[in-house]
């Protein structure tokens, strides 16, 4: 079983580089040390979340972000997984290999509890409200 963090905003669809020089240029998005807002695809000119980090300039697009990488992997691999996305606290993904799920059905049942579309939408809305408060955008 594989657990991955940061599959929701802000790094689900945007790369973060702790040391950009270690990433070959052809595999690196344009980046800047500027902050982000969940309401803007581009980095902000001032303020925002994680302004001290090296963030991809633009959110979205190919090969940009943790969730994008997971989706690309799942599209390319021959291995079969149950993919569960929990969008709370910047997001958690569960990749449960089908052979493991077949050997341990109770593990599959526990993962599938989170794979209900209504539950995912509710958690996603709560997470965006939490982020808005963190960013000082709350009412």
In total, the number of strands is 6
Low-confidence stretches: none
Major sheet: order of its strands? Answer: 1-6-5
Percent range of helical residues = 25-40%
**Number of continuous helical runs:** 4
Helix-and-strand structural type? alpha+beta
Radius of gyration, rounded? 17 Å
Number of domains: 1
Based on Cα principal axes, name the global outline.
Answer: flat
Q: Distance N terminus to C terminus?
A: 40 Å
How many strands, what sense, and barrel or not for the largest sheet? 3 strands, antiparallel
Strand content: 15-25%
Average pLDDT rating? 93
Order of helices and strands: EEEEHEEHHH
Protein described:
There is one protein chain. The chain has one domain. The chain has helices spanning 66-76, 98-103, 105-112, 117-134; strands spanning 2-5, 16-17, 31-32, 54-56, 81-86, 92-97. A three-stranded antiparallel sheet has the order 1-6-5, with helices on both faces. Strands 2-4-3 form a three-stranded antiparallel sheet, with no helix packed on it. The longest helix is centred in the C-terminal third of the chain and has 18 residues, at 117-134. The relative contact order is 0.19. The protein is an alpha+beta fold.
What's the SSE blueprint?
Elements lengths: L1 E4 L10 E2 L13 E2 L21 E3 L9 H11 L4 E6 L5 E6 H6 L1 H8 L4 H18 L5
Antiparallel strand pairs: 1-6, 2-4, 3-4, 5-6
Summarize the structure.
The protein is an alpha+beta fold and 139 residues long.
List keywords for this structure.
3-stranded antiparallel beta sheet, 139 residues, flat, alpha+beta
């Amino acid at each position: 079983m594989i657990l991955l963090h940061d599959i929701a905003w802000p790094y689900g669809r945007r790369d973060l580089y702790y040391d950009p020089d270690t990433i070959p240029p052809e595999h690196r998005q344009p980046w800047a040390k500027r902050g982000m807002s969940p309401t803007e695809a581009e980095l902000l000119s001032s303020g925002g979340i994680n302004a001290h980090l090296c963030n991809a300039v633009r959110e979205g697009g190919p090969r940009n972000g943790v969730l994008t990488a997971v989706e690309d992997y799942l599209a390319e691999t021959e291995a079969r997984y149950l993919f569960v996305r929990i969008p709370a606290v910047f997001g958690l993904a569960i990749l449960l290999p089908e052979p493991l799920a077949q050997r341990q059905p109770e593990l599959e049942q526990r993962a599938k509890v989170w794979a209900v579309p209504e539950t995912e939408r509710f958690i996603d809305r709560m997470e965006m409200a939490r982020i808005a408060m963190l960013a000082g955008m709350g009412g």
